[in-house]
Amino acid sequence: MSAKDGAVRLTALVHGRVQGVGFRWWVSDRAAELGVVGRATNLPDGSVEVVAEGSERACQGLLAALRGGRTPGRVSRVAERWSDARGDLVGFEQR
User: What's the confidence (pLDDT) of residue 3?
Assistant: First the structure.
């Protein structure tokens, strides 16, 4: 997937009670439903970095899910950054 395919890259830092396999699995499941590729990574400060590429609509859907989907009690804040897709992500990886 490349920027010329209309793809975008969303980088979201998710803060709250989000570290762990359960949250990363939930993000991976939402990403698969929306047709985006990327990764979810636990960071040392207790947040999770979610990097996703796909259509802008699909990435907006993932962002909405992060902000208030099935986990609203766990997420306290989401910081987002948008850029052109790089095309270097395949599937959805959890770290």
Answer: 44
pLDDT at 73: 64
Tokens, residue 66 = 């992060």
For 30-54, give one letter per residue: b (16+ CB within 10 A) or e.
bbeebebbbbbebeeeebbbbbbbb
Q: How confident is the model at residue 1 (pLDDT cuts 50, 70, 90)?
A: very low
**Active site positions, annotated:** 24, 42
DSSP letter at 6 equals: T
User: Which is it for strands 92-94 and 37-42: parallel, antiparallel or unpaired?
Assistant: parallel
Domain layout of the chain by residue ranges: 3-82
All residues at 6 or more sequence positions from 57 whose CB lies less than 8 Å from its CB, including other chains: none
Give the predicted TM-score (pTM) of the model: 0.88
CA dihedral 82, 28, 67, 34 (to 10 degrees): 70
Write the CATH number of the domain with boundaries 3-82.
Answer: 3.30.70.100
